[in-house]
Each structure stands twice: as structure tokens, then as C-alpha cells.
Fold this protein.
Amino acid sequence: MSRCSLRARLLFLAATLLAVGLLTNGFFLINALDGHLMKQADSRLKVTTQICARLSATTLESGLGQQIPAQWSRFSNPVVLYVNDHGALLKRLSPGQSPPGGGPDLPLLDADAVTARQGEPFTVDSREGPGHWRVMAVPQQPPGGPSGAATGTPGNVVVAASLSQVDDTVTEIRTGSAVVGSVLLCLLTSAGWLAVRSGLRPLTRIEETAATIAHGDLSRRVPALAGPRTETGRLTASLNGMLVQIETAFQAREEAEARMRRFVADAGHEMRTPLVGIKGYTDLYRMGALPTRQSVDETMERIARESERLGRLVQDMLLLAKLDEGNGLARPAPATATPYPLDLAPMDLRTLAVDALHDIRAMAPDRSVSLTGPDGGQLTSAPALADEARLRQVVSNLVGNALDHTPPDTGIRVGVGSLDDHAVLEIEDTGPGLTAEEQERVFERFYRADTSRSRDTGGGSGLGLAIVHALVTAHGGRIELRSVPGEGCLFRVLLPLPRTET
């Protein structure tokens, strides 16, 4: 059975239980009917035997058709025997036709045997062929005295009644029960097959869906073919939930692989540019194309700039890799080591804002710069638990982004303060702004909103804002961007305020 399908096993089990139930029910019903008919035959046999015991053989024979017609009519070819105390036959009476099977095959019924029977009916076989007889033997009690009426000697009366009617009735009921049970078993088995097929249809659909998913279609779902409280309904809901997680995991893996491929390609492109420059300058020197000391010094200066640029690029890439390895989580407890731990300490973001103001004035004295609160409001304190060195890197990248990607006459605002449950630091410019598509990708690695910029004119490697996003996320905060084309950009850093212990 382990090699059969679930449908076949369920159907076989149901059919077997049904057959056992029908057989058991038929067995007990037929036995009960047989017992009931036997009790009725015994009751009639006892009445008849008592009447015959009080009549002589001559009286009974002469009045056979008049005195007890009702009793004889209830039996099929009854036989009445008068025997003496030694069991010898004295008189045999058998009204009607010859008894079936040649009559009963009686044992020796002497006085001791009759006494041992105690007037209880017993069953014997027919002399010839199949058939049974119900027999009852009692001492004769004629009205004239204790001696026999036919012979004048004591004797016994034996009355035997054929059980052919009982046997025929029981056989007919047994045959009919078998036929009806067989038909009923076939019909119910067919109905059970349809019910099992219908009940297992959701499993078939689950199998089909699983096969489709195995061929790569992760968008398929198992249809809800049963109620949510049924076993099949709960299985369907669980499988659909699992499929959603699997599809999400595969999409995330594909996106991660795509980002990794793009990152490797962009990183290779970025690193190739300074390396090509360094190689070109060294080739010129080897070929003797730098005859003067001045040309050698200029070439060495270019090699140094390209080396510094390459070093910064490698550092930025290592920083992003470490932040990715730490899953962007910073923990204030120094006991738990992280792939990229942050040196968290209490600080006020106003210090960074003031330093950013001085840096802008030093790098671009002609620019208009102001220091305000969030959204240009009143300047307030902005306490935070953060790594000051890394936040300075965040502010430096934001300030450099504003200076490099806006015209020289563009104004810059530095905002700092508290807003709701966060410490806020803002860098806002009034430059050309970003489109909606550029805003969605501005924090991607190696992405440049203006691809026409050369790296020598301030285009950068495209890692600055990606580092800003990663570092702010590592502090448990977030960075927001608001920009309208032609009206400038606002980068807002929000860090959670330190919890005050009570």
C-alpha cells in the first residue's frame, strides 16, 4: 500500500471499513432473525407436543383434521411418534405429504433419554439430504391413566417439525442482504471515490503549482479551494505565505547580485582611470620623453594626485564594505564587537554645524552662507549619541556635494536643532536641484546626477552620498532629501535624541 497513491489508499480504507460494517450488521441481523424464528417454532412445537401427549394415538389419528388443525397448519409436514420406554416405535403419524428428507434422523429416545431432555426442543438432521428438524420428546399422559392409550403400556410422545420454512426464510434474507450489501458497497465506493477525488483536488492544484514554481515561475500561488479553517485551507495559506517569502528572497538575491555586479563594474571603471594615468606617466618616463627636470617634477605631481585619488577611492570602498558587513547597525555597548564599531559619545550637532559654516567660508569666500534652525527657524540645541569623527565625514561630504554641484553664486544654508524626537542637521542650497528620477538614485553607489562632469572638475567617484547614507543609517538615523528642479536641494540628517534615564 505504501506504493499506492493517497487517493487509492483512502478509497481502499473506506471500502474495507464499509464492507466490514455491512458484514457485521448482516451477521447480527440474520442471527437475530434466526433466533426469533426458532423461538416462534419452539413455542408452537411445545404447544403441539403438550396436546399430543394428552391424546392417544388413535384419538389423535381420528381427529387429526378436526381437533388441532390450527397447530398442524403452522408446521411443514410435522411428524408425531409414539414410542415405549425402551425407545421402540409404537405409532407414527404424519399428516399431509411425505416429510422432506425422509423425516428426522432421531436418536434413541428411551425413558432415560426423554427424562434427560427435560422437555426442551432440540435439532436433528434429516435422514436423506439437507434439512433440519426441531424435535421435542415428553412422556405420554393419556387422560385414562399413566399407561399408553394405544398399547396399554407406558410410553413417550415425540413431535418433530421441519425447519425448512425457517431455513428458507433465513437463506432468502441472507441472499437478499448479500445482494443489497454488494450493490450498496459498489455505490458507496463510487460515491467515496468521487468524494475523495473532490476532497484531494486542492492537493492536486498544490502539486501543479509546485511543479510550475519548480520550473521558475515564482509568481504562482495556490488557489484557495477550501475554507480558511479547514486543513487544506490552512495548508494553502501557509504555502502561499512561504511562496511570498521565497519570491521576496529570490528578488532580493537577484537585486543584490545586480548591485554587486554594478558595483564591481563601476569600481573597476573608477580604479582603472587613475591607474591608466599613472601607467601612462611612468611609460613616458621610461621612454625618456621627460628630458627636463621641470617635466619630471610635473609628471611626479600628476602621479601623486592620481595616487591620492586612487587611495581615497579605495578607502571609501573599504568603508562601505565594512558598513555593509555590519548590516548598518551601531551598538553603544563596547562589549559587543561589530564588524564596524562606532565610537559613540554624547555630543551636540551645533558644533558640526558651526565648523561646516567656517569650512564653507574658507573654501568659497564669495558664497552666501547662513546658520539657522531646522527649516530656517530658530537655532536650538541638537544633542545626540554619535561618533563625531564619522559625522564630520557626513557633513564634509554634504558640504562638498553642495559646493561641487552648484554654481559659484549659489547660497548655502546650514540648519541645526531638534525636531520631534530627533536631532537635525541640514545642508540646503539654492542650486539647480534634482529631478524625481535623480532623487531616487542619488544615494546609489557610483551614481552621478550630471554625467557630463569630469572627475577632474569635481564630479567625484559617486560614493560620497552613498557613504553619507550608510553612516547615518549605522547611527540608527535617516537622511531625507527634498528637491525641486530649479530651486535647490535640502539634505536633512535626523538622529534619535539620547534617552534620559529617570
